[in-house]
Predict the structure.
Amino acid sequence: MKEIKTPRKPLIFYYVIAMGILILLNAFIFPDLMQPQVSEVPYSTFLSMLEKGEVSEVSRDNVQITFSDRSQTPRLFKTGIMDDPTLVDRLNAAGVRFYSPIVEPASPLASFLMTWLIPIGLFVLVGQYMSRRMSKLGGMNAMQLGKSNAKIYIESKTGVSFADVAGQEEAKEALSEVVDFLHNPQKYTEVGAVMPKGVLLIGPPGTGKTLLAKAVAGEANVPFFSISGSEFVEMFVGMGAAKVRDLFKQAGEKAPCIVFIDEIDTIGKRRESGAGFGGNDEREQTLNQLLSEMDGFDGRNGVMILAATNRPEILDPALTRPGRFDRRIPVELPDLAGREAILRVHAKKVKMTPDVDLKQVARAAAGASGADLANIINEAALRAVRNGRRTVSQEDMEESIDVVVAGYQKKERVMNDREKKIVAYHEVGHALVAALQTDSAPVHKITIIPRTSGALGFTMQVEEEERFLMSKTDIENKIATITGGRAAEELVFDSITTGAANDIEQATKLARAMVTRFGMAEEFGMVAFERQQGQYLDGGFVSNCSSETQGRIDELTVKIVREQYEKAKETLRANAQKLHRIAETLYEKETLTGEQFMSILNEAPALEGPAAV
Ligand code: ADP
Ligand code: MG
Ligand code: ZN
């Protein structure tokens, strides 16, 4: 994509000026340097050359005698002055041209220039240069107060296009309509359709909002101004508003065009109601300016305003009301097909062996954003290079998912034998409970190689196909699976460890949600006791109930988790032999694939009944 910035004098310009000044100064202060080479000789040499008639011309000033010889290209010599009263006679006798130049006192103007103006001028120049540098670093620019530094992208062949954005079909369709309107406005106005003035892309981080906007720039044949909300937040009061004004002035001159404001929540935050001290006046001014500029434009002016945010709920209602950002385009986390498509886009950039199964990778990377998927491909490529291979294999991809999910493998052995055994039983506990329940996602992998994220091991389940609904039983089974790790520890070692901290947190969260959000506790029914905060960021929930209810919610949560824990323990106790056999294999191999796990599980049935553990 071609990027044009506000023209600025290049650095070389200042260097050239500085060089020029230095050269001039040199000429003034060391005039000799600018003249041909003069070699210094002793006075005696001067006299003997004079005697031999080799000297052609002599000049003398207050400090030295300069003379040239009679060779074809006269060489220049100089020597010091001696107290020599007969010199003039001897020069006369030798028939040499000699003189002493009249030294004029330097003109007062020149000396004034030399001693004052030039140093001061230099000083000012250096000062200006420094302040420019400072302003680049610090964001304040005394020379360009309030100039917007929006970048203009214009269409070019190398740019991002809609083809680079995978899986966001609805968003792409909505945006191409916008682009089409800018190209053929009459097609729409003939029917009487009015295009939305502003389009807001909303969705969790890493889903490709910025990428989509860039693709619009690549697809549209119109100028594209792009600026990030944080760039409006200025050090001086009023600067942000001035920047907004300047941005829209530029846009108005270039219409039809698209203005893209990324991360608009930084300036578009809800204004505080009720006056008071400590309000953020600066941000409010900027927002007000933005609102009033938006009112001044509409589709007929040919200026389309795009913005992106992952926190739509905190935007000021004035921004989202009809006539401002009245079209919202959700850019959600990709589904299975979307993930596969995104992997395909990024896989084009790396060499892969034919055995790589991107569908499988997409299935394993449930919940990953586009940015995560791009990262998975890149990590796999890095791993291939690290291992001295020229193509990326399926194994690279599998390991890369683990890296993105759980961090890198820790090479040095951090666990002692007993710990390793406990972790093996813990992980098999999860896997076994999952496998022995109906309708649980199949186990894809079990590993007890510690990860840099702190995980000592993990069990990965991969759904065969995407699921959009979970039944009450599904959630209960999931809680049972999560508690299966701790259950195995308790059964086998009769002691429990801190290793389950993360599991406990997850189980609690699920059980709580059953009560407060999913209406799955009979005594409450369909009542929500929690409100979600920050739809796209993990903003958590605010509770919304009386303190008595709160106490009851806690009791129910404890009850659900306890029941599932008992269920998991029961399942494991009934299958103790399998637990032992799989845990021992895992302890040896450190990693088991789903198939290996299933084949041990389905081996010849146990001879004895449920053994005591
Ligand atoms: P956002 O602005 O929504 O936080 P970005 O647009 O910055 O996310 O996405 C970050 C990177 O993730 C992109 O540069 C791209 O490599 C990758 N990515 C995200 N979504 C997609 C997608 N739908 N198709 C292809 N690549 C994507
Ligand atoms: Mg972004
Ligand atoms: Zn666990």
Remarks:
- Residues 1-7, 138-145 have pLDDT under 50 and may be disordered.
